[in-house]
Amino acid sequence: xHKKLLFFLIAILVCLSASVFAQEVKFNxxxxxxxxxxxxxxxxxxxxxVSGDSQNLPAPNIPTFSMFEIETRGRSSNFSYNNGVVETSxxxxxxxxxxxxGTFPIDQISAIYNNKRYKGNKLFLTVLKDASTIxxxxxxxxxxxxxxxxxxxxxxxxxxxxxxxxxxxxxxxxFYISVRYYGSPELVEPTTTGxxxxxxxNKTPYHQRINNRQYxxxxxxxxxxxxxTGELDIGRAMIRVTVPSRSxxxxxxxxxxxxxxxxxxVSIRSNLLKIKVKPLPKKGRPADFTGxxxxxxxxxxxxxxxxxxNQPLSVTIKLTGIGNIKSIAxxxxxxxxxxxxxxxxxxxxxxxxxxxxxxxxxxFEEVFIPKRPGNIEIPSIKYNYFDPKTSKYRFTAxxxxxxxxxxxxxxxxxxxxxxxxxDLKISSEARDIRYIKENIGDTQPVGQLxxxxxxxxxxxxxxxxxxxxxxxxxxxxEKFEGDIGLARSKTALREAKKRLTKAKSxxxxxxxAEFYVEIYSSVTSFIADKMNISPHGMTIDSIKSLLxxxxxxxxxxxxxxxxxxxxxxxxxxxxxxTQTDIDADLENAQNIMVDMSGxxxx
Amino acid sequence: xxxxxxxILLACTLVSSVLADTALFDEGNKFYEQKxxxxxxxxxxxxxxxxxxxxxxxxxxxxxxxxxxDLGHAILYYMKAKRLAPADQAIRHNLEFAQRFSSLQMEGVxxxxxxxxxxxxxxSYTLTTLAWTASLFFILxxxxxxxxxxxxxxxxxxxxxxxxxxxxxxxxxxxxxxxYRYEYLTRRAVIITEQPAVYTGASEQSDIELEGAPGLIVxxxxxxxxxxxxxxxxxxxxxxxxxxxxxxxxxxxxxKFLYFIDTAYANIYFNQNNNEKIGxxxxxxxxxxxxxxx
Lengths: 602, 294
Fold this sequence. Notes:
The complex is a heterodimer of chains A (602) and B (294).
Chain A: H1 2-22, E1 27-33, E2 37-39, E3 44-52, E4 68-82, E5 85-98, E6 102-106, E7 110-113, E8 116-119, E9 123-128, H2 136-141, E10 152-158, E11 169-177, E12 182-188, E13 195-210, E14 213-226, E15 230-234, E16 238-244, H3 246-256, E17 263-269, E18 273-277, E19 294-302, E20 306-308, E21 313-323, E22 340-354, E23 357-370, E24 374-378, E25 382-387, E26 392-397, E27 401-406, E28 444-445, H4 454-482, H5 484-505, H6 512-531, H7 540-549, H8 554-572, H9 579-597
Parallel strand pairs in A: 2-9, 20-27
Antiparallel strand pairs in A: 1-3, 3-5, 4-5, 6-9, 7-8, 10-11, 11-14, 12-16, 13-14, 15-18, 16-17, 19-21, 21-23, 22-23, 24-27, 25-26
Helix pairs in contact in A: 4-5, 5-6, 5-9, 6-8, 6-9, 7-8, 8-9
Chain B: H1 2-33, H2 37-49, E1 52-53, H3 55-67, H4 71-84, H5 89-99, H6 113-122, H7 127-150, H8 156-185, E2 188-191, E3 197-199, E4 208-211, E5 217-223, E6 227-232, E7 237-241, E8 245-247, H9 251-254, E9 258-262, E10 266-271, E11 277-282, E12 287-288, E13 292-293
Antiparallel strand pairs in B: 2-5, 2-8, 3-4, 5-6, 6-7, 9-10, 10-11, 12-13
């Protein structure tokens, strides 16, 4: 109880402190540029992201840069509410137009928030004298057969024309356009037969000056993984875009001053690319190599360290790295037949992008069923891959997992493990049920119900009967205690019988006097008790009149008189009485008692 | 002398029947180990023919049916085993495991929270355990009564014992009654055939309401000559042919003198021999929907 209370208090404290910390001012300025090297004729895009936990964020102050001209290109804002924390960010876009060559810092960008000045990070931008970032080929492509510069052209390039099979290459499609266009350009993707393709994404359109002409560049990148060796083609991509019609342009100019220029749709195709895919080197190839290319790390975890024999445990094997996650094969399990049954439960993959590099995580869930108790180990699992950067085969391995396998109740060492993979269909092979019991256990007749069991009924009834009996006894006792007359009357016969029993034990000529004393008092006491009077001082005559009053039969009165007189006589002349007389009188006394029970003394 | 002979004969019969059970049980286990599940089922069923049951017997029978691919019977016998030994982990494990194989999982199952709570409290105990516990407290209560009123002892120990034991009597007998109502009076059955049709009425000419699946547990609400009116856990109901489902507990059906018709509010008991009405027990808590109170 105290522990629970303590936990509760700690939880409250943690929550309170979290909310206190949450109230700390959160504010940040992040400055970034799309390229760190540009030609003098080119432009760079600078983004300033102001973020904080308030909805009213200040605009950044941009100092005057003597080396650049800065043009505003709009802003975008973002608002998020996550776990009770509000975060707002505003991104300001600027175009940087260099004035002279050199390497210049971009700093002193700041904002004032809550009376405090916050500074952005410092960056450097290198401006080259001539547009040397643009290669000759590009300059040539921007010129048509007649020597005039093109209004638009479409270029496809790859970063590596001679990759290994399954090695990632990056295909970049760049659409250069220097005239206005309507709507958004429509892309027909290139055919990439023989490759596994993943779109990396579109780059924010940017500008570049080629042959003294300003082009807007729309760029899209793909990650391609060749799945076979030999020469493969990347087909032509096509862009459809509506540009102002040249002929209409002229006419419109003359008529309406070009205000309502109509457009024409043009299709521009990119160049064809040929990729020569190399096979993996045979030299140094491990025997159990499964064809995985990239760079990976493997790890394994078990859901429990202590388990029972024949009880399944789940082992998660995680391969993380760069490469074609979809194509990587399952790690080969070491030979563990004598220790475990192993079943594949599931696989899952998560593909992620880091810049232009495709990678991710593949998770293999395996069910391990230990066959015997004891301390056993899942040994290190080795995974081979080919690293295309170094052109070498490498491997990664898990750490061994130590397990303590306990002995279950009723464990029998047996080669037949009574378990199977959970995804097996029900059949004789489905064995993930606990094994049959060896003994029949306590048997009972079918359908026996405890509530009908005579013993059960008796056990529950008996105490009630006892209680009822005791209550009756108590009531009777209390009644007697309150009414002595009644008590005497009710116990009269019992007392008289006690005396007669005593008399019977001394019914002998040697104890004649004592015998007759008992007989006398048994009769007189009975009558006294019944009538609630004192037995002392009762005479034969008074007894006779009492009995007559109570309508006793004359024969009974006569026999009572007779036995009382006999008793009186015996006191003085005991020796004159024989054993026969004693026995007869005992019988008489007993009969008198029986007869007197019938008299109504009330 | 004659009596002695009779006793000896009786003892011999008892011993021989016990030996027969064990022998048949061992035979069933042997067939099971040899993966001859049909034969093992046969052996176990021979013990049931002797009108003898045990949790272990039902458990092994459930296993044999499971291995034989008969999910309905497997669940039926696991449930029977669980009734006799509800705390047995192996039985619970196998029942849960088998239920995962049911091709049809009930959706929209809403149990009454009070019933569910009570059911979870008494789930690990047999009716016998609960009944004897209630009896124990009842005896203690009566002893306290005897001390207080029979012997007239008015000490605080006696008074406290009286109140406490009464409290426990009420609690344990309440649990016992609940268990009895929930598991014995509520007729439950399991579907034992592949995709049995559940009709909207008690005839094959009726529309098909839904299709069941082996291993699904249903509540039997009423019955006609050939059909049971059953209620599924998700409150859907319909008529299913007798023989396509098996009841967990055939207490009333097997009883020599009584059989029982469940109407909405009353249980009417008839003498099976002359169809004379014996009595009616009105049910103030109407049982339906797997124990929901309405």
